[in-house]
Amino acid sequence: MNKFKFNIRGAEYAVEILKSEGNMIEVEVNGTKYNVELEKTVETQKTPKLVRSEMPQPQTREKKIPKTLSSVMQVKSPLPGIIVKILVKEGDVVKEGDNLLIMEAMKMENNIQSEKSGTVKSIKVKEGDNVLQDDTLIELA
């Protein structure tokens, strides 16, 4: 349990408390075991000991949510920033790598490019909007 070193009148003692029950304590002093009775009982901790019960197993098998194959791709903001200029409009056909808009983030202007070819389905922001990271900017179909 606990190990202590005592120095009494120049002699060093290595004391280890092995177990304690109520006011009886078993100690080992320099390799010799002793049973010691305390004059008053040891107070129990005031903080309750929390015991968690086991989680019950689910009764039915959990079903995985099926992934829907959507033909819509969302262009998301890579960083928080401000939309400076939108370079496309709804219905425009874009190719992979085309610039879609310009966004100012961290005092730099960043070109947001299309990751795939498609048609601009909707534009979710307007010039001057503040956006957060992972906000949807444009949807491509």
In short:
This protein is mostly beta strands and 141 residues long.
Offer a few descriptive terms.
141 residues, mainly beta, 12 strands, elongated
Can you characterise this structure?
The protein is mostly beta strands and 141 residues long. The protein has two domains: 2-37, no CATH class; 73-140, RNA polymerase II/Efflux pump adaptor protein, barrel-sandwich hybrid domain (OB fold (Dihydrolipoamide Acetyltransferase, E2P)), CATH 2.40.50.100. It contains no helices and twelve strands. The strands form three sheets. A four-stranded antiparallel β-sheet has the order 1-2-3-4, with no helix packed on it. A four-stranded antiparallel β-sheet has the order 5-12-10-7, with no helix packed on it. It has a four-stranded antiparallel β-sheet with strand order 9-8-6-11, with no helix packed on it. The radius of gyration is 35 Å and the shape is elongated. 9% of the residues are buried. The model has no long low-confidence stretch (mean pLDDT 85).
